[in-house]
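Inverse folding, one chain.
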């Protein structure tokens, strides 16, 4: 198995011992992204809508580094701290998948890195 580590300077650096993404053959596994600004390291979390868009932009940067786009995404995992935010997160997330959205699950969790409100990971196939 040959694996290629994918890195984007337009997405935040990992905050632990993991890669932004790993590509094996035609499949890209993107680590969970949170709403960190890649340039400043600051959280973007004025509200859940803004936070979700920041997460999606970080995912997009990692996908782009692998020459892929949201059109290639087949699966997403969404982790939220409060399921009451589901509709708002869903609305923002949905703007990135206008046609043929990927499979996904949304799970409420008690805590996320840096106490963010949403984290999203994805799998894409070239």
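Residues assigned per position:
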């Amino acid at each position: 198995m040959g694996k290629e580590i994918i890195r984007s300077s337009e997405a935040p650096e990992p905050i632990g011992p993991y890669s932004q993404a790993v590509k094996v053959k035609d499949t890209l596994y993107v680590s969970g992204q949170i709403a960190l600004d890649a340039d400043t390291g600051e959280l973007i979390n004025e509200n859940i809508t803004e936070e979700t868009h920041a997460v999606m932009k970080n995912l997009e940067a990692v996908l782009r580094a692998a020459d892929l786009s949201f059109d290639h995404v087949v699966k997403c995992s969404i982790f939220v701290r409060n399921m009451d935010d589901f509709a708002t997160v869903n609305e923002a997330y949905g703007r990135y998948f206008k046609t043929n959205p990927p499979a996904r699950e949304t799970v409420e969790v008690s805590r996320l890195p840096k106490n963010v409100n949403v984290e999203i990971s994805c799998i894409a196939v070239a």
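The CA atoms of residues 5 and 22 lie 5 Å apart. The radius of gyration is 14 Å.
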